[in-house]
Specification:
seven-stranded antiparallel β-sheet; 219 residues; mainly beta
Length: 219
């Protein structure tokens, strides 16, 4: 269970706003008028049940309405505004600056065809790191529930928890692609500067599908 190597991901960066290193990505004044993202094809139905992903995000600075996606799983490739407008199913985590405030808005989001739902919180942290745990539990409710736990310490202990987001999902769906970061192209020039690192999918060697197969075989 090691952190992802971002240099093995595919980078689309039309304005040269993204710098990728092995375990770290810098976003430098990325506007909301570009299609830019870093993703990896994990194979059809790779994310096929319960999961728990960890990722660290540094919210450095942004204009009001500056926005980026810092985690997402999909079955299609596009920036996340493109996915939303074309009604492509996905799960994602957005962060943007709130107009007129020192707050950041963190949004956990599900798109299911033309329908969508989200859970949102504001955090007052400026120019600091937050530590995310994103978890899907398919045993909860009819179609499962997805959570995002937000911590102020990398240990992610109970005392470090500053907010929890959750959505009761509207369908059970398997996903193929993981996005480490993405723009949200609204043809606007609001900028965001941030960092993301240490994406850990917490999968056994061989990936989620092998892990699921082993469980099914009773080992």
């Amino acid at each position: 269970m090691t952190v992802e190597d971002y240099t093995t991901y595919t980078e689309v960066d039309e304005n040269n706003d993204i710098t990728v290193a092995a375990q770290h990505i810098d976003i430098d004044t990325m506007n909301k008028n570009v299609d830019s993202y870093v993703y990896k094809d994990k194979g059809i139905d790779h994310f096929d049940g319960d999961f728990e992903h960890l990722v660290d995000v540094h919210l450095e600075s942004a204009d009001a309405y500056g926005l980026a996606v810092f985690w997402g799983i999909t079955n299609d490739i596009d920036d996340f505004k493109g996915l939303r407008l074309s009604n492509k199913d996905h799960l994602s985590l957005y962060i943007n600056k709130v107009s007129g405030e020192a707050n950041w808005k963190v949004k956990l989001y599900e798109r299911n065809g033309s329908g969508a739902q989200s859970d949102i919180t504001n955090i007052t942290y400026e120019d600091t790191w937050i530590y995310l745990k994103i978890k899907r539990d398919e045993s909860v409710g009819t179609y499962g529930r997805i959570y995002c736990y937000i911590y102020d310490n990398s240990a992610r202990e109970a005392g470090d928890l500053i907010a929890t987001l959750q959505i009761d999902l509207s369908e059970k769906e398997d996903f193929r692609y993981i996005f480490a970061v993405s723009s949200y192209d609204l043809d606007q020039t609001f900028e965001i500067t941030a960092e993301v690192e240490n994406l850990n999918l917490q999968e056994a060697a061989g990936g989620q599908q092998l892990f699921t197969l082993i469980n099914m075989m009773g080992y």
